[in-house]
Amino acid sequence: MPKHPLQQCARRPGSLKRALFTECRRRGLASNTARSYFHWVRRFVRYHGMRHPEEMGVEQIGHFLSHLATERKVAASTQNQALNALLFLYKKVYGEDVEAVESFVRAKRHRYLPVVLSSSEVGRLFMHIDGQIGLAVRLMYGSGLRVSEAVTLRVKDVDFEYGLVHVVHSKSVKARKTMLPRRLFGPMQRQIEHVRATHGRDLEAGRGAVPLPHAFARKSPRAARSFNWQYVFPSAVISDVDGTRYHMSQSTAQKAVKSAARAAGITKRVTCHSLRHSFATHLLENGYDIRTVQELLGHSDVRTTMIYTHVLAKGHHVRSPLDGEGL
């Protein structure tokens, strides 16, 4: 029986990454997911002395997962990421019906509550971050966006008439809509006009293209130079490799948020995702129902959203005995 074409491709030197990314794109997985899968496949190969995955199987997968739990001390969620990556490789890329992987040491599952900022802490954070990065960060909090969703936002995705943000390139394949804060109407309009001016200069210089989704790029290649497809938060420079203007990097936003948190004297471990956590928690505090918050966040399962009900700290208004009278 002939091999799956991707299986044949993945057997050639240096082509495993290409085969994995191709299959991820074919199934509509996010680029971050593809990169994460390849990260774990590469670690799996290195752990087993650079043996090709096709020469290994369930036993080697189990050994690697046990290594992660017992020696690397990874969290259960991290171990599950590795397992999902390897199952995807064998089932989808190689077309092998691997048996259920059971014989491995499971990492201990710890329950962590997300870091949430108070409204005053959010305000203090914003005092120390401005410009294009500051606007992107405010959108993460005001619209509940992931950092990857904020930096890849395109001009066409911002709807001022209805006050909405259309989230297309999300962690899940399913697109969603969330609110565009009215307070950001003016700053967002000015940012888009800045993008228009930058795009005009790029076109005059014979540039002006942005990356497009793979299938759409083949169908409508001219859209790459269309204003509507430009990034709302573009990179400050054009790539020397292909002459394309990419979006602001996620690491740029993350570093800016951490720096602003330090400057604001916030001692919590603050990341861009903390703003999304804060968005959800503050909506629940203000009386919005869990299903509404679920839709705005784009969670496929309401149980994922339920974690924010635990963040609301049932004991928050309970008086400590140390604060009692007579002490």
Write the layout of secondary structure elements.
Elements: H1 5-11, H2 16-26, H3 31-47, H4 58-70, H5 76-93, H6 119-126, H7 131-143, H8 147-151, E1 158-159, E2 164-167, E3 176-179, H9 185-204, H10 214-219, H11 250-263, H12 272-285, H13 290-297, H14 302-305, H15 307-311
Antiparallel strand pairs: 1-2, 2-3
Helix pairs in contact: 1-2, 2-3, 3-5, 4-5, 7-11, 7-12
Question: Which properties best describe this structure?
Answer:
327 residues, 15 helices, disordered N terminus, hpI Integrase, Chain A, mainly alpha, three-stranded antiparallel sheet, DNA polymerase, domain 1
Characterise this structure.
The chain is mainly α and 327 residues long. The protein has two domains: 5-93, DNA polymerase, domain 1 (Orthogonal Bundle), CATH 1.10.150.130; 119-195 and 231-238 and 247-311, Orthogonal Bundle (hpI Integrase, Chain A), CATH 1.10.443. It has 15 helices and three strands. The protein is globular, with a radius of gyration of 23 Å. The termini are far apart. The model is unreliable at 1-10 (pLDDT under 50).
Summarize the structure.
By secondary structure, the protein is mostly helical. It has helices at residues 5-11, 16-26, 31-47, 58-70, 76-93, 119-126, 131-143, 147-151, 185-204, 214-219, 250-263, 272-285, 290-297, 302-305, 307-311, and strands at 158-159, 164-167, 176-179.
Intertermini distance: 82 Å
Spatial order of strands in the largest sheet: 1-2-3
User: Which shape, going by the Cα principal axes?
Assistant: globular
Beta-strand residue percentage: under 5%
Q: What is the number of strand segments?
A: 3
Q: Mean pLDDT score, rounded?
A: 87
- The domain count comes to 2
Quaternary structure of the protein: single chain
Helix percentage = 40-55%
Kindly name the structural category: mainly alpha
**CATH topology grouping of the largest domain:** hpI Integrase, Chain A
**What is the CA-based Rg, rounded?**
23 Å
How many helical stretches?
15
Q: Uncertain runs with pLDDT below 50, 5 residues or more? A: 1-10
